[in-house]
Amino acid sequence: MKKIVQNKMVTVRVVDMLGTRSLVELVDKSVIPHIRASKALIDSGFAVEETEIEADKSSSVHTASVPLAIEETTEPLEWTWVGFSVDETVDVTVCMMYSPGEFYCHFLKDDALKKLNDLNKSLAEYCAQKLPNGFKAEVGRPCCAFFAGDGNWYRALVKEILPSGNVKVHFVDYGNIEEVTTDQLQAISPQFLLLPFQGMQCWLVGYGTATPVMGRLVPVEHVKEK
Predict the structure, then answer these.
(1) Cα(213)–Cα(210) distance, integer angstroms
(2) Residue of 77, 99, 143, 185 with fewest CB within 10 Å of its CB?
(3) Helix (H, G, I), strand (E, B) or coil at 216
(4) Residue 226 above 80 pLDDT?
C-alpha cells in the first residue's frame, strides 16, 4: 500500500465516517488506468474483500474539551479535528501509514498545509522561549511535544503514561505516536488550538479495522475507537 499511495498526490473519496475517522477509497489518478488502492491490494492477493463494515455511528464526535490549568488561562482548552463529509472527494497526501486499516491524510485545499507550516513555526518559537513549566501529563490532554526525529515541537495529545514515567503522545497533525520524556512536554496556549488538528485518521474501504493474518488482511468484528 505504501508503494501505491505514500508520498503521492492521490484522490480520496469519503465513504463513511466514524467520529474523527474516515472510511475512504484512495485513487492514484496520475497513471492510466487509474489505480484504486483497495482493488490493487485484493488483486495482488495481499487482502480479501470485506462484505460488510460494522461501525457505531452513534459515537461520532468531532469536538472535545478538557479543563486545564496552565499559566496563560484557567479556561478549558477546546480543539477540533479536520473533517470530511460522506461522498466528498478531495485531494490528499498520506502523511503516516500503519496499515490499510489505519493511516493518516492531509487535506490539499484551502492552503491547509501552509496554515499548518505557519503554525508549526510559531509553535517552535513559542516553545523555545518557554522555561520548564511543570506540565502534568494526563491522558487526553493537548500539549506541545518535542519530536526527536527533526528536533522540533508539534501539537500533540497525551495518549499513555508509561510505568517508566515517560509519556506516549499522538502528534495530532501527522498521526505518529512517539514516546517522550516529561521534559519534552509543555503546556499549549489556546491560540495554537484554533486550527483544527490536521492528521485525519482513515481506513481503507472494504476493511474496517483490519488485522494481518498470514500475509492477508481480514476484517475484525469490531471497530476500536482510538
Answers:
(1) 9
(2) 99
(3) strand
(4) no
**What confidence tens digit (pLDDT) does each residue in 127-163 have?**
988 665 668 888 999 999 999 999 999 999 999 999 9
The whole-angstrom separation of Cα 14 and Cα 52 is: 16
Whole-model pTM over 0.70: no
Which positions ≥6 away from 134 have C-beta within 8 Å?
Answer: none
Q: Distance between CA 18 and CA 112 in Å, rounded?
A: 22
∠ CA 92-123-156, rounded to 5°: 60
Tell me what the mean pLDDT of segment 160-184 comes to: 94
3-state secondary structure of 195: coil
In sequence order, the β-bridge partners of residue 223 are: none
Determine which of 8-12, 14-18, 209-213 has the lowest per-residue pLDDT on average: 209-213
Give me the CATH topology for the region 1-51+78-219. SH3 type barrels. (2.30.30)
What is the grid cell recorded at 161?
503514561
Grid cell locating 146: 518535542
Using alpha carbons, select from 101, 81, 92 the residue that is nearest to residue 14.
92
Q: Where are the domains of the chain?
A: 1-51+78-219
Helix, coil or strand: residue 57: helix
